[in-house]
Specification:
mainly alpha, 146 residues
Length: 146
């Protein structure tokens, strides 16, 4: 059985839910997925959900700021490491290792190619021009030489 909800009913259940779909589902008396579909059905309910979710984040941030005002050291460090990244407050050194790793890969490939070339030279096998002959083949002089 498909449950149909009115837009206004869904909007009302979103208010005060902190953007938690299971809370909305409980208020609507349905399963989580049904509530999610109801929220996403109309532009107005999607916006109401986004607004409620933002209010929830605002509340969390205001509680975080209260702790910072109370000189809570771990919260101050957390705040600086997340919101203060642009000013250089980071918990760990962040580096771009892409260039170094690419150089290592190129050097490894060059070493392997040099080893392969040395092996081919030792076996008297051409590397790039199909100079190998089938096993058991014997070189024969060109016609006209002799």
């Amino acid at each position: 059985m498909v449950r149909k909800f009115e837009k206004e009913q869904v909007e009302q259940t979103i208010r005060g839910s902190f953007g938690i779909v299971s809370t909305i589902a409980k208020r609507l008396g349905c399963e989580w997925h049904t509530a999610q579909k109801a929220v996403n059905r109309w532009a107005e309910t999607r916006q109401a959900y986004a607004d409620e979710d933002s209010r929830s984040l605002d509340l969390s941030e205001s509680k975080m700021l209260e702790l910072i005002n109370e000189k809570d050291g771990p919260m101050i460090r957390y705040h600086l490491s997340t919101k203060g990244k642009g000013r250089g407050y980071v918990q760990k050194q962040e580096m771009n290792l892409t260039v170094k790793r690419e150089k290592e890969i190129v050097e490894e490939i060059e070493r392997e190619l040099a080893e392969l070339a040395a092996e081919c030279a030792a076996a008297d096998v051409g590397v790039f021009e199909n100079e190998t002959q089938p096993e058991g083949a014997v070189d024969t002089p060109d016609e006209g030489t002799g």
